[in-house]
Amino acid sequence: MNTGMEPTLAKKDGQYVWHAMQRPGAAPLIADSGEGSWFTDTNGNRYMDGVSGLWCLNLGHGQTEIIEAATEQMNKLAYFPLSLGHQPAIALAEKLAALLGGGFRTFFANGGSDANETAFKIARQYHKQTGSPEKQKIISRYRGYHGNSLGALAATAQANRKIKYDAALPGFLHIPPPYAYRSSFGSAAEDDQQAADFLEQTILWEGPETIAAFIMEPIISGGGVIYPQSNDYYKRVRDICDRYQVLLILDEVVSGFGRTGKLFGFMHGDDDFKPDIITLAKGLTSGYLPLGATCVAENVYQAFDGKGETSHFRHISTYGGHPASCAVALKAIDIIEREQIVNRVETLGHTVLGKLKQLEQLSIVGEVRGIGFLYGIELVQDKQTKEPADDDTMKAVVTACQKQGLIIGKNSDTIPGGGNVLIIAPPLTSSEEDLAFLVDTVSSVLRTFA
User: Fold this and answer.
1) How many angstroms separate the CA atoms of 428 and 435, rounded?
2) Is 386 buried (19+), middle (13-18) or exposed (0-12) by CB count in 10 A?
3) Full DSSP string of 350-414
4) Which of 103, 215, 264, 279: disulfide with 115, CB 3.0–4.6 Å?
5) Could you tell me which CATH number the domain at 65-339 has?
6) Is-above-0.85 flag for pTM?
7) Is the CATH number 2.60.40.10 carried by domain 9-62+341-448?
């Protein structure tokens, strides 16, 4: 593998670009082209993208139909704001409502952070206009990620992301998630029930009349691929929210559009499990263009139909619902449906997880978790004490995989001392050969550390 970097590009990169989540001076990999689940860097080295960019390139590189949809729309109407309207936004909102089972209105945003900011504003204004003006607090779960703008970051319960930003905005509370491997309640068997009970207890401690909404990822992704052991957790959460008139917001930014082997993560619950608000991004366009969406149940939307100068929703987004982005989303959804991507992920996901689960025999692997094409491998220094693997080990594993042509991630900059989960989320179109390469590479690397 060529380890050099084209000198002019490397110099310009170091001089002009401020990279996300990298320390100054680090020399990043520079991509040149992509095809399917793979990309090639500027030195001609080829890599499998085992994290789909940032969890978003669900359909892989080179989807000509998506590119053509964007081009066609830009030729027809390059830009138009949704303070008025345009056809692609109408068609996409109608499609999303159908996919979600009907009864949803969509407010379009730029991405996931923006979609969640929108949801928080809607929740607070909703309660003010339905006779409960003190309902302002938002509850979220530790290790969950909801965005990097200040409101979304306040809901994000990952302490390392907030250091030096003074992101402690008022009105945001955090509770433990269901996490049987490291149960906050001392009982792995009863972890789901006790996590749900803690939500109810928090509502009661704070006063139900003060709680506007509870936001959660159906499957915590960047925080370590954490999810309940059974679907009962989802039902209990829905019942608790109903009991205290708390809006349930589901952050499906990562888990939406087939990533988990269901079209949406909430569909792992029973048929009665429905949110009040759903936020979407990433896989919505398969990463080909930026777009977010806040989908709101009809009964919530109707609360904004009152009289008065401030009864309507006054939030606005310049690029939210960009015509080309909406056209791209419609084409991405069409491909997902036509190619039966969700069924494919559900089937192949079980196979991949079964193979990765065998790594639990290694001394360095505490637990392997996964659902669909979303996997977390929790590394430890001691299997009995579950002491997390240190940062140097995590970086060494990720680097070793990269040297063998595989890009994987880890839960970086999340919680103090808890960045010990390898993150794997390949494109949903990955071939069986791609997936075999992924499993074999991760397995061979981890065996050298065991």
Assistant:
1) 10
2) middle
3) HHHHHHHHGGGGSTTEEEEEEETTEEEEEEEEETTTTEEPPHHHHHHHHHHHHHTTEE-EE-TTS
4) 279
5) 3.40.640.10
6) yes
7) no
